[in-house]
Amino acid sequence: MPDSWSACLQTLEGYNKRVNSVAWSPDGTRLASALVDMTVKIWDPTAGQCMSTLKGHSDSVRSVAWSHDATRVASASSDKTVKVWEPVTAQCVSTLEGHSGSVNSVAWLYNANRAASVSDDNTVKIWDIATGHCISTLQDLSFSALPLAWSHDAAWLASASNHVIKIWNPASGQCVLTLEGHHSRSMAWSHDATRLASASRDLIKIWDPATGQCLSTLRAWSFWVKSLAWSHDASQLASEAEGKIRIQNLATGQCVSMLEGHGGAGINSVAWLYNTTRLASASHDNTVKIWDLAASQEAPMLDRSAVDFVASLSNASRLASVLDDMTVKIHDLGTGLCMSVLEGFGGCTVNLMSWSYDVSRLALALGYGVKICDPQTGQCMLTLEGHTDWIESLTWSYDSTRLASTSNDNTVKIWDPTTGQCISTFQGYNFWLQPVAWSYDTTRLASVSAPKDRLVKIWDPTIGQCVSTLKGHNGRVTSVGWSYDATRLASASSDGTVKIWDPTSSRCVLTLKGHNHRVLSVVWAYDTTRLASASADKTAHIWDPATGQCMARLEIGCLLRNVQFHKSNSGLLHTELGTLDIQTITPPTMSDPIPTRCLSQVAIGYGLSSNRAWITYQGENLLWLPPEYRAFYPRISGSTVSIPCSSGRVLVFKFSYRNPVS
């Protein structure tokens, strides 16, 4: 494993909602964050621990600021107040009331006994912190129009609207300078207040606030910049857009570093620590990140482009990732090496992938067509054409001799992937855009209807005829699965039930009840002795399909999207979080309660915690993963854990087989 992952030193979690603002204490030993959930959190940025939570506001906290002696914190809120806190004791020492609108920002004057606040009521108020009284009010200044920027000592306030930036003296309420020619959405003062930066959609301008002269113009993003921050020596500027932070050298205008890790979530605030190379960012992803530009050398990546989605084999030996540069890369998860690159799609976007079960082919959906590729050579073997609208699902038969495609053109097509011939087309039926399900002997295909129909149809894939219709659910059918001998079909529904059908007679044999939310997936054990269902209630149920009895309830703590039984042992259930051992759970008698186990009690070998924040072993936390390294499509095989990340990395962790902690 590389020693340095990226410039991100620390991720501060524990937030339930968006983080609006972040501010360093002057000595850099603490960090304050303002939250939508009406609280302020004080952090130890070195340990990553929350030292205290300040509660008392009755609406979202919009801004937070430290006094210059670091003894107090002021917070501005949409509840129309400013509160002053002692961060050590978490006590509110003063509530400043007087604004008639949401208070958008607060700043300390250099004198620690004075603070200034800006509100939607178009006023700036100067406060005496000792008494809690408003000393003066500056009115009718149109300060509610964002953006606003305080100088470090609060001696100056900049406001922007209608391609005009105004510099105000809050003490007198006078506009001392007007800067024209920039439609700014964010601004920031240099630490010594000798420079002002303003940012628009594609440009950043650096101004001399003494003369009003534009000193330089930097090419910025193709998106609106929402936050700016200066380095203490004014040599570098940090700007944010689309969840990324760009560091630019102001002498050359060059980008010297790009900070990524919030997963594309918007960043509301960036703060540079005094006289250091460290930054803090507050994001819509409910986290605060601490960055060190001195450690910004990137760790090696398997892919540099962002991973849009992945397709991996059930045995996790191969992984295909679609990148935002419109290529597909095939990785060997045993070695972490790229085996081949699939490209040359003529600018078309790959929106779906599906591996054949014999691993010899990979099917890619590109708009209305399908390409069959050889993953070893990276060559396109066939192009399947015939749909007249976007393809929404691709499903291989278990013997890899047939491929089914479902399209927005309201048809399902059955293809011979060797010749490219369309064998049959199902049409005249309102198909719901769910993957179809092949019987194991490839003689039957089950499809789900539109939500309002609540039907399952059984088809003969050779002639394209519907041979049976299953009706009985009271909600949308979300998933179907065949028993291995094809004598039974299970269907899961948003009505919270699972039904077992005789597909020959179209009769519902059993209705399984127990979930308290919609059921998302259902799967049979290969010996047909067990049936597993996963639900939006964040549980999985194990059923006896012969009697309809619930044999066990597994409290997973998150949604499971990929569930299947071990081929030779129906007591093992494979999921995207790892393997679950259910064979030791004793089925209840008719009078006994259903046995309930949490994830950590049934997890065996290597896996992931329900929040994907930890790689686990035998259900115990082993290795913590920062948020940017948590994936919805992990693959776990034996002692190898593979995690595709939105940053472009495909991380492959290889552990010892036994006792990794010891």
- Shape verdict: elongated
Low-confidence stretches: 297-310
CATH top level assignment of the domain at 8-295: Mainly Beta
CATH topology of the domain at 8-295: Methylamine Dehydrogenase, Chain H
- From the alpha carbons, calculate the radius of gyration and give it in angstroms: 30 Å
Question: What characteristics describe this protein?
Answer:
mainly beta, 6-stranded antiparallel β-sheet, Methylamine Dehydrogenase, Chain H, 5-stranded mixed β-sheet, 1% helix, elongated, 662 residues
Write the layout of secondary structure elements.
Layout: E1 8-12, E2 19-24, E3 31-35, E4 39-44, E5 49-55, E6 61-66, E7 73-77, E8 81-86, E9 91-97, E10 103-108, E11 114-119, E12 124-128, E13 133-138, E14 148-150, E15 157-161, E16 164-169, E17 174-180, E18 186-189, E19 196-199, E20 203-208, E21 213-219, E22 227-230, E23 236-241, E24 244-249, E25 255-260, E26 267-272, E27 278-283, E28 288-292, E29 307-312, E30 318-323, E31 328-332, E32 337-342, E33 352-355, E34 362-366, E35 369-373, E36 380-384, E37 391-396, E38 403-407, E39 412-415, E40 422-426, E41 437-438, E42 445-448, E43 455-460, E44 465-471, E45 477-482, E46 489-493, E47 497-502, E48 507-513, E49 519-524, E50 531-535, E51 539-543, E52 550-555, E53 563-565, E54 572-575, E55 578-581, E56 596-598, H1 599-602, E57 603-608, E58 614-617, E59 620-624, E60 635-637, E61 640-644, E62 650-654
Parallel strand pairs: 52-56
Antiparallel strand pairs: 1-28, 2-3, 3-4, 4-5, 6-7, 7-8, 8-9, 10-11, 11-12, 12-13, 14-15, 15-16, 16-17, 18-19, 19-20, 20-21, 22-23, 23-24, 24-25, 26-27, 27-28, 29-30, 30-31, 31-32, 33-34, 34-35, 35-36, 37-38, 38-39, 39-40, 41-42, 42-43, 43-44, 45-46, 46-47, 47-48, 49-50, 50-51, 51-52, 53-54, ...
